[in-house]
Write a structure and sequence with these properties.
mainly alpha, 4 helices
Length: about 110
């Protein structure tokens, strides 16, 4: 269940990220995720913050969509799955569960 504790945790993470060395795509992914949490809580109450968080993330996403990417990430794909594909793995981050679903579906279609 999404609650105010989750929202506070994500906001605290984003504040901390401003003082840490990080990849831009990691911060954008977190902003997009927090925007989704806020939408679930109450869109009308959080509209300005949602817009601020998601606009920057989606601008970066547009630049990612110009880069070569796997076939399973073309077409109608969840934005967070695309961010998962571009995550840096050197910091211990691996493919998210959302992206794995697209990979598994692609594999099933292509292996019969």
């Amino acid at each position: 269940m999404i609650d105010s504790c989750n929202r506070k945790y994500l906001r605290d993470c984003l504040k901390t990220a401003d003082t840490c060395e990080r990849a831009t795509e990691q911060l954008a992914r977190a902003q997009l995720h927090l925007g989704r949490v806020l939408e679930k809580l109450d869109v009308s109450k959080n509209a300005a913050e949602i817009k601020k968080l998601t606009e920057g993330a989606r601008e970066l996403l547009k630049s990612f969509l110009k880069l070569p990417r796997p076939e399973y990430l073309r077409g109608d794909v969840d934005e967070l799955a695309v961010f998962d594909n571009f995550q840096v793995t050197f910091n211990g981050r691996f493919t998210g569960r959302l992206l794995l679903g697209y990979i598994q579906e692609h594999h099933k279609r292509n292996t019969g």
